[in-house]
Write a structure and sequence with these properties.
30% of the residues are buried. Helices cover 68% and strands 2% of the residues. By secondary structure, it is mainly alpha-helical. The chain is built from 33 helices and 3 strands. The chain has a 3-stranded antiparallel beta sheet with strand order 1-3-2.
Length: 669
């Protein structure tokens, strides 16, 4: 609000200035002071000066020496004249009296400072001070552009002329810095972005990326980060969003994105290299501040890229643009930055997040054409994950890095080529080791295994050959029948969502084994999966039914439509289905699939155990059939109509088999 703006302006004005008694006295209209050394400042406050106090005094607005507020010192001259002595004594008495009055006045003033009055008086004496709060216009933006172009040309000329005399071009550097910072105010008015395009200022702005002064380069990066801030443009009207998108296109047409990434790679990104102890010590002493500047610049450029993706709607086309090596070197940078040799910091987190966004945003065609699902791209990601199989992430940021890397890998595993590369790189064995570690990476490893086995019969067979059944069923028992104290400890350490996701992924992996293995061709391996539910007196089968009951209760809490409140259209039904998924419907469906496959074995002992377990929980087998029917009804056609039909037929076959001996199947009447 207006009060906050006034307070902010006052803080700026008083920054670095001690609010002395005499300054308060002057602002309140206090007495006059004798003239003394004075530095005029018609433009307003220009920062603190040692030995001076800024105020509007008798000589005008400027800096006055502190001595003018104290009584003059006694004259050291040895004059014996009585009149001079009397005058000196009178001066001392006046000094004492004035000091007492000043102290009393100051104490009263300090306790009742009227900041609004102070700000009003300062603004009255310095009318330019409120310039920043003035709304931008097309004319004012053009003025800023002209100032920038003039400052840039002046700086280039002086640097060329006085290349060995920095003091000669220092002032022009300051002017250029100020001109760039003036343009940053444009971020608050996206509707005026077209001025930068119309005035053909973008190429000039991009040229500053090569400026020798690193601070000037960083200023330009900050400018574009603010211009492409999606929060600013999204809060505005459609025209503002359109102008931000047009500015981005202008940037691409002028190779701006490439220039940003080249600046990132060549100027601010330092690849780790082996150093001896002496070199490390010297680097710590000399380059600490410089490294911080470089990291900040890295973060800024990555933020520009992320903002550009968001402004463009996160389409596959924009993701392909950034990952295409003929456009930028971003792919090379991201793989290097998230590598295991890089230390953990905010930049690595941002790089891992951007890698996840780009791989997830690309469609299957792009992933194939860009060769993302190959060894060169997937291996660095897997190696970055591998280092966590023996160590815990140190904090929440490092945990997020692990999750981002897993998301990027899962995005690639959605293609057949990605799954093939994953197994060739021994990713299966790596993920099984991560699951066995029982560290934080276990959750991400289960997610990766889930994606790797989805609709992948060969992968499921390799999973069994790699002794994956022992690992996954051990995890299953831990999720649904483990020690409550241990589970509670994990929930406290990693959060409820982590534990719930672990249970969901475990069920999904087991369901994939049943769905993908062709029993007619690989009967032995299919039966090995079935036998896991029979061993140890059906303990895992009992846990399976208990999980069905648990997930069923969670899903049943969703308010379903009825005759009085029927769903209005198919969209309402879809919304209800999505809400159920949020409450565990996916896991309930996977449990129903597993139960149906076990029932379809026609093994008397298995069927009897399932029937008893369901009956003990007052659940009819028809409930499982309903769950599978709903699943079949909501299968999408993302893989094509034939794939959709095959999935539906498989589920309906399970539904048909899931009947008690005395029940009549549809069509058998």
């Amino acid at each position: 609000g207006e009060g906050e703006i006034h307070t902010q302006q006052l803080k700026i004005l008083m920054s670095g200035v001690q609010l002395t008694e005499n300054l308060i006295k002057t602002l309140d209209g206090g007495g006059k002071d004798d003239d003394s050394s004075f530095i005029p400042a018609p433009g307003g406050f220009q920062g603190p000066r040692d030995g001076y106090i800024f105020q509007n005094g008798e000589a005008g607005v400027g800096y006055y020496r502190e001595e003018i507020f104290a009584a003059k010192e006694d004259d050291d001259d040895d004059d014996d004249d009585d009149e001079v002595l009397v005058n000196d004594n009178n001066a001392k008495r006046r000094k004492t009296s004035n000091e007492t009055a000043t102290t009393t006045t100051t104490m009263k003033t300090k306790s009742t400072i009227d900041y609004d009055k102070m700000l009003a008086e300062i603004e009255q004496n310095n009318p330019d001070i409120t310039k920043e709060t003035t709304e931008l216009t097309e004319k004012s933006v053009k003025k800023f552009v002209i100032q920038f172009e003039r400052a840039l040309n002046d700086n280039v000329e002086k640097r060329a002329k006085f290349s060995t005399k920095p003091e000669k071009f220092l002032d022009s550097e300051v002017d250029l810095d100020n001109a760039i910072k003036n343009l940053q105010s444009l971020a608050s008015a996206p509707k005026l972005y077209h001025v930068l395009i119309d005035t053909k200022c973008v190429p000039s702005l991009l040229s500053v990326l090569a400026h020798e002064n690193e601070d000037i380069c960083v200023d330009i990066l900050e400018l574009f980060r603010e211009l492409f801030d999606p929060d600013a443009s999204n809060e505005g009207e459609e025209d503002e969003n359109r102008q931000a998108f047009q500015l981005l296109n202008c940037l691409r047409e002028n190779d701006g994105i490439k220039m940003f990434v080249d600046c990132l790679m060549d100027r601010f990104f330092s690849k780790p290299k082996k150093k001896n102890e002496r070199e490390e010590r010297e680097e710590k002493d000399d380059d600490l501040a410089g490294e911080e500047t470089k990291r900040n610049a890295e973060e800024t450029i990555l933020q520009i890229v992320e903002n550009a993706i968001e402004i463009s709607g996160g389409t596959s086309e924009i993701c392909e643009y950034f990952l295409n090596e003929s456009n930028t070197r971003l792919k090379e940078y991201l793989l290097e930055r998230v590598g295991k040799k890089q230390g953990t910091d905010g930049v690595k987190l941002q790089a891992s997040e951007l890698l996840s966004i780009l791989t997830t945003g690309c469609d299957e065609t792009v992933k194939k054409s860009m060769l993302l699902a190959n060894d060169a791209f997937m291996d660095p990601i897997m190696m970055a994950i591998a280092c966590y199989k023996k160590k815990e992430p140190q904090d929440s940021e490092e945990r997020e890095i692990v999750e981002n890397l897993a998301d990027a890998l899962c995005a690639l595993l959605q293609t057949k080529k990605g799954q093939e590369t994953f197994f060739n790189l021994e990713g299966l064995e790596l993920m099984l080791m991560c699951v066995k570690s029982k560290l934080f990476v276990r959750g991400s490893a289960l997610k990766i295994l889930d994606f790797a086995l989805t609709e992948n019969e060969l992968g499921c067979l390799k999973f069994i050959d790699a002794f994956g059944l022992k690992t996954i069923f051990s995890t299953f028992v831990g999720c649904f029948g483990g020690d409550e104290k241990k589970i509670k400890k994990i929930r406290k350490k990693y959060g409820n969502d982590y534990v719930d996701a672990e249970c969901e992924r475990t069920l999904s992996v087991i369901a994939s084994l049943f769905q993908n293995i062709d029993i007619s061709k690989n009967t032995d391996k299919y039966n090995r999966v079935v036998s896991k539910f029979v061993e140890d007196s059906f303990v895992k089968l009992d846990l399976l039914v208990e999980s069905y009951v648990s997930y069923g209760k969670r899903v049943s809490k969703i308010e379903l439509p009825n005759d009085e409140n029927p769903p209005q259209d198919s969209e309402d039904e879809q919304d209800i289905y999505l809400e159920k998924l949020d409450h565990g419907l996916s896991s309930l469906e996977n449990v129903a699939i597993i139960i149906a496959h076990l029932w379809a074995t026609l093994d008397d002992a298995i069927q009897k155990r399932i029937f008893v377990d369901l009956e003990n929980n007052e659940i009819d087998v028809s409930r499982a059939r309903d769950v599978l029917r709903d699943r079949a009804k909501n299968i999408g056609d993302g893989g094509g109509e034939q794939v959709q039909k095959d999935k539906v037929d498989q589920l309906l076959t399970l539904v048909y088999s899931l009947y008690m001996p005395d029940e009549v199947r549809p069509g058998d009447e």
